[in-house]
Design goal:
- The chain has one domain (about 55-365): Metal-dependent hydrolases (TIM Barrel), CATH 3.20.20.140.
- The protein contains 13 helices and 19 strands.
- It has helices at about 75-85, 105-115, 140-145, 160-175, 195-200, 210-225, 240-250, 270, 290-300, 315-320, 335-345, 350-355, 360-365, and strands spanning about 5-15, 20-30, 30-35, 45-50, 55, 60-65, 90-95, 120-125, 150, 180, 195, 205, 230, 255-260, 305, 380-390, 410-420, 425, 430-434.
- Strands 1, 2, 3, 4, 5, 16, 17, 18 and 19 form a 9-stranded mixed beta sheet that branches. Strands 9-10-13-14-15 form a 5-stranded parallel beta sheet, with helices on both faces. A 3-stranded parallel beta sheet has the order 6-7-8, with helices on both faces.
- Strand 6, helix 1 (about 75-85) and strand 7 (about 90-95) form a beta-alpha-beta unit.
- Helix 4 crosses helix 6 (about 210-225) and helix 6 (about 210-225) runs parallel beside helix 7 (about 240-250).
- The longest helix is centred in the middle third of the chain and has 18 residues, at about 210-225.
- It is globular and about 65 Å long.
- The two termini are about 15 Å apart.
- About 55% of the residues are buried.
Length: about 425
């Protein structure tokens, strides 16, 4: 709902930069934070009871697919933003494999304009190459002026090394990263799951971890040569984490993100689910050893952001044989519940560290300013806890598509609301009163 003035009462205010948690009220007036202190009285404004809950700067998912323009039967910007709100996100960065792809300024501006109708800031990631064909660079400067925050041909790698070199050289002048889908396609001839013991037993063509690791190694060398910023999308193997860690130690400008499903499920899920297409994603689910390495990469800072790779597909597209199904699952609504269950409760990360991976981490990678909970700052807030146990059901899905393996799963920690651009969204269990 539209509301310029609201008092968030009695929450634990989390500052991911300072690493502090302080009990305080947060008063928002005309969409701007005016006071952060105890026992604020503000007659006549909407009051949100945050007792027992946390308030942090708004979360960002830097890797989503909202499908519009061109694939609105899967998702629209409006339904994607509804899913983001339910997941506690006030900002997303959407990938360019739409139809037409995000390779011209008018498409960038169209996407931004559609997002402005919601409390979610929608930041387009533009194509590296025209039509995502991997042949000719896009007009990067014009796309940046239109609002693009990064460049990627995601869904496909930037396969030509010379094109990647030129892309990194140009993008470095604009201060934008190149986000690559890390995969050497020659090592992945028509694979559908992780290549390993399980795929061999099932007789399903596999995608080796080597395909990801070879491309990462190549891009690290090109980044070192050009000085450009290369970002590893949806990292999924332990060796890939090692490559990024070693590159960072050598001062190379490389960053990485991980999706929630890649530290939650393994390739064994394909067999356990009897070939459910809800566990078919790209890169594929890997092994227990890879999950352990990813968690260590999160713990030691090698991986700087958690994302979802939210990839909606219509039911008729997924309800086919495993090999015929498209890759991808939705993830916005389950992100925090999986982070709480898989990372916070077991002690892999603190709540502050987890929130940092959803706030300062992605925005620093994209060179964007970080929202602050401080007097004079625009109000951009997420309300949540890290302890509520709840069961994810079909009714919790706000996306237009329902392709997820987590229906019926127990989650730990829940988002309860967001505030951004003078718009407030609250879960039904949270009340606001004047």
């Amino acid at each position: 709902m539209k509301t310029s003035n609201v008092l968030f009462k009695g929450g634990q205010v989390l500052d991911p930069v300072a690493g502090t948690i302080t009990v305080a009220d947060v008063l928002v007036q005309d969409g701007v934070i005016s006071r952060v202190e105890s026992d604020i009285e503000a007659p006549g404004v909407d009051i949100v009871d945050c007792n027992g809950k946390m308030i942090s700067p708004g979360w960002m998912d830097m890797h989503v697919h909202f499908r519009e323009p061109g694939q609105e039967h899967k998702e629209t910007i409006a339904t994607g933003c509804a899913a983001a709100m339910a997941g506690g996100f006030t900002a997303v960065a959407c990938m360019p494999n739409t139809d037409p792809p995000i390779h011209t300024r008018d498409v960038v501006e169209f996407i931004i304009e559609r997002g402005e109708k919601t409390p979610v800031d929608v930041h387009p990631i533009a194509c590296v190459s025209r039509e995502r064909e991997g042949k000719e660079l896009t007009e990067m400067s014009d796309l940046t002026e239109g609002g693009a925050v990064a460049f990627s041909d995601d869904g496909d790698p930037v396969y030509d090394a010379g094109l990647m070199r030129r892309a990194l050289e140009y993008s470095s002048m604009l201060g934008k990263p190149i986000i690559n889908h890390m995969e050497d396609l020659s090592l992945n001839p028509h694979g559908h799951m992780h290549e390993g013991v399980v795929s061999t037993r099932l007789g399903v063509p596999g995608i080796p971890g080597l395909a990801e690791e070879v491309m990462i190694a190549r891009d690290i060398l090109i980044s070192e040569f050009t000085g450009g910023h290369v970002h590893v999308a949806h990292i999924s193997t332990g060796r890939a984490v090692d490559l990024v860690r070693d590159a960072k130690a050598r001062g190379i400008n490389v960053t990485a993100e991980v999706c929630t499903h890649h530290f939650t499920l393994t390739d064994q899920a394909v067999e356990d689910s009897s070939y459910s297409t809800a566990v078919k994603m790209h890169p594929p689910l890997r092994t227990d050893a890879d999950i352990l390495a990813i968690k260590e990469g999160l713990r030691d800072g090698t991986i700087q952001a958690i994302c979802t790779d939210h990839a909606p597909h219509a039911s008729f597209e997924k309800e086919v044989e495993f090999i015929a199904a498209p890759f991808g699952i939705i993830g916005l609504e389950t992100a925090w519940g999986l982070i709480g269950r898989e990372l916070i409760r077991p002690g892999v990360l603190s709540v502050i560290d987890a929130v940092r991976l959803l706030t300062t981490g992605p925005r620093d990678i994209l060179g964007m300013p970080n929202p602050a909970i401080a007097s004079g700052s625009p109000a951009n807030l997420t309300i949540f806890d890290a302890t509520t146990e709840w069961t994810f059901t079909e009714a919790d899905i706000k996306s237009k598509s329902h392709n997820t393996p987590f229906i019926g799963s127990t989650m730990v920690g829940r988002p309860f609301g967001i505030y951004n651009r003078e718009m407030l969204w609250l879960r039904e269990s949270v009340t606001a009163a004047a």
